[in-house]
Predict the structure.
Amino acid sequence: MASPRKWLLCVCIIFSIIIILPLSDSFSFTGYAQSENLRYLETAKQIFRKGMSEQHAFEYLKTITSVGPRLTGSSQAEAAVELTRKLMEEMGLDNVHLEATEVPHWVRGEAEEGWITSSGSGTISVPVAAIGGSIATFSEGISSQVVEVKSFIELNKLGDRAKGKIIFYNKPMDPKLLNTFQAYAGAVAYRVRGATEAAKHGAVGALVRSLTLRSDDYPHTGLMQYDPGVKKIPAACISTRGADLLSDLLKKDPELTFGMKLSCADLDPEISHNVVGEIEGSEKPEEIILMGGHLDSWDLSPGAHDDGAGCAHSLEAIRLIKESGLKPKRTIRAVMFMNEEFGGSGGRDYVASEKRQREIHLAAIESDRGGFLPLGFAVGDAQTAEKFKKWEHFFQSIGMFWIRPGGGGVDIAPLGQQGTLLIGLVPDSQRYFDVHHSGKDVIDTVNPRELELGAIAMAVLAYILAEEGV
Amino acid sequence: MASPRKWLLCVCIIFSIIIILPLSDSFSFTGYAQSENLRYLETAKQIFRKGMSEQHAFEYLKTITSVGPRLTGSSQAEAAVELTRKLMEEMGLDNVHLEATEVPHWVRGEAEEGWITSSGSGTISVPVAAIGGSIATFSEGISSQVVEVKSFIELNKLGDRAKGKIIFYNKPMDPKLLNTFQAYAGAVAYRVRGATEAAKHGAVGALVRSLTLRSDDYPHTGLMQYDPGVKKIPAACISTRGADLLSDLLKKDPELTFGMKLSCADLDPEISHNVVGEIEGSEKPEEIILMGGHLDSWDLSPGAHDDGAGCAHSLEAIRLIKESGLKPKRTIRAVMFMNEEFGGSGGRDYVASEKRQREIHLAAIESDRGGFLPLGFAVGDAQTAEKFKKWEHFFQSIGMFWIRPGGGGVDIAPLGQQGTLLIGLVPDSQRYFDVHHSGKDVIDTVNPRELELGAIAMAVLAYILAEEGV
């Protein structure tokens, strides 16, 4: 064995030459070193250093998730409203206030159950969860034979065979898509419309494979929709392992039955609130750059990524700007929207408020794709994104990679209808659907550095837009 | 509340226009669409689709980590040698064989203990772990007053005050560095040389703040070194929370004592093995493109990221090439190196073997920075990296971002001394030191998709190099 000294020298050389070199150009801005932008470069560096040293985004996320799941209408959602209002006041933001929005109040009720009874294997419990908005089953549950389909086309071919059955939509997300949101978009229709389409064919229940790329025991819920005039039947999601087991057992025993007990209920709507705070612009206070996420979450976990992260991003971004002593020309506003998950009323009521009549929203940046490593910004149409390219190097210097055409999310979409430029923070999506709408969306799955990098990027972009306009 | 139908339409529009658009250019190759490269483009796509559909990298990682921690000289390390040899044979690789290398056999011994005894707080247990290569304490432990330093300069200024004391190196990794390996490089010297430098000043022990950017209760071990002729004193790492507690208590009670009990021991060296398998080149079999990681790990966890991931990457990459029916002109070889962590003998003995005399290693690709989202390849010097830029678009199409100058890791460094082009797979580093060398480096911290993307990238690069040469 050669001596450890030589080996350590070798390690030393490797660190200096090999590992550090590839990122040594982090703060070089060749190709965009015009003097008028040196100030932004210095500001980006300053915000980066401050953010990475202090990492308050993770502390904000701890506060938000500390109340637990925040489904619209729940006391936890209201607690989160109060906590974030308090955080904004403690930060010394201007014009901190709440804006009312009516929200649904659906509750899951007591423990849910799902079970397969087959001739070969007896009765086996599987993890299920009611899909948001579903009606309950009878109190003793329902039990019926099952028909497995991969699509609505297959459903439509069933004819009478669907009658009295539970329709089992077993459509996996496509693992071959790099952008997991694309894979989600390709399968989410069965969760949203599965029950109502099944009911049209006389089915008594709908069971939907969970929307995740992992094989595990967690049901992933989300919103569903009943069409007016179509009989309402109960709908549940089943974990991916449960779905695979059911599919396997169906091949051996097509006559097996599936049982499920759901005790969810729709209560009266409640009044909840968007939480708003800002740094008032020094020259054009009526022109607004908005940053936001949504406070409400699904009820199976405290929604750390969806969308505690987006709220923490926005709060930390506005703190970084304020505490860096920056005085933006235009107003930078943080909005914690209520009710993205159960109908999007917060975003609509924000735009409809009479307060908006005296305001011009130039741009809105939404974070609602998790607290993972931020890759880039999705910015308006191709022409607008091209204009933003001149700033790409700023964001590359703080760890991001690109600016591309695209937009934000559900909360700011109504602003877009009024001409506001919509921007989305785009973190890497590989891990998002591991946790999305399931019991796994907890703070332990969030890395404080990845989260902070998103907040830093939003702070830098919001500040530049507040100075430059759109 | 507006109707759910409108809201769902809105969601639908957002998905189609906003979320999917930013990545819709995934497989476009503008600027590098020359016909001679269409084959590589098609191959990259094919490997990507196969990899993401099958995701065997995670299965290989399960197998490797199933044996537990794999410290050199341990029976688990030997079990991993056998398991990976078997995997290569089952894969139908050519010339599967083992190559011997002598490895140290240091063992941690029984449960370790650390405790702070201060006037105000009594005795408090804190998490410690012997640093790899440390001698044991007396069987009842040692206990002594503590001097906290942040650097060797501070140590050198202590003079007689170090005598008979435990030197507590409380130097945190710098959170302001985007590349966490740079932050590691700035603090690792205290772990490696802390004991021997402290001993020169008459200290009786060394205690080193764990090398992680998280605040938690996990000690992070690693290798240390005693200088010849300097008294050997025991050295332990302490969790970051333990280090912060000790530092706080020292401010209140500078006379407090720190106790630690370590029962580690250096046993006789053992003979272990590198594991080698390949796809023999169809035209120039003697010219080799090597891919590798290291099988050994530290002993506090099964080393899922360090470096189970690198082994899984290499195994999956060579499987993807083979099962895609590709017949590379040059030989593509996977090497599971033994003993990267405890002296690097595997890499040196690989180069020194007489088998190498009939071989020319054109390039070696190492994966030893974890199984996270792959960002790019670090490739040789600036000139070489520039040449590789023409292939950057291939890798951008499979989710990576860049090719930059840089290199591999410890295992392939000896090949570099012989002129082989060294290449490192560079995943994102934000989460790496959360787990590195600690009890947290377990398979649950690995995302199968992130891991697979690294294997796919290595497969594509190895295949292109095997066709094109360097």
